[in-house]
């Protein structure tokens, strides 16, 4: 949960061009943990 908050906070400070690059890389490790919870 802390990682998600950190990512969302970083998205607000980063420009859109770098956001598009960082979002997929940042959320890829989160996907397996989220699916395992559900």
- Taking the alpha carbons of the first and last residues, their distance comes to 15 Å
Radius of gyration: 11 Å
DSSP, total strands = 0
The number of domains is: 1
Structural class: mainly alpha
> What string, H for helix and E for strand, traces the elements in order?
HHH
Largest sheet: none
Percent of residues in beta strands: under 5%
Q: Count of helical segments?
A: 3
Unreliable spans: none
Shape: flat
What is the helix fraction of residues, given as a range?
over 70%
Quaternary organization: single chain
Global mean pLDDT? 62
Protein architecture, described:
The protein has helices at 2-13, 16-27, 30-37. It has 3 helices and no strands. With 38 residues, the protein is mostly helical. The mean pLDDT is 62. 84% of the residues lie in helices and 0% in strands. The longest helix is centred in the first third of the chain and has 12 residues, at 2-13. It has one domain (2-37).
What topology emerges from the helices and strands here?
Elements: H1 2-13, H2 16-27, H3 30-37
Notable traits:
single chain; 38 residues; mainly alpha; 84% helix; flat
Quick description:
This protein is mainly alpha-helical and 38 residues long. Helix content is 84%, strand content 0%.
């Amino acid at each position: 949960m802390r990682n998600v908050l950190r990512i969302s906070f970083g998205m607000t400070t980063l420009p859109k061009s770098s956001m598009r690059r960082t979002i997929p890389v940042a959320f890829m490790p989160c996907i397996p943990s989220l699916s395992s919870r559900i």
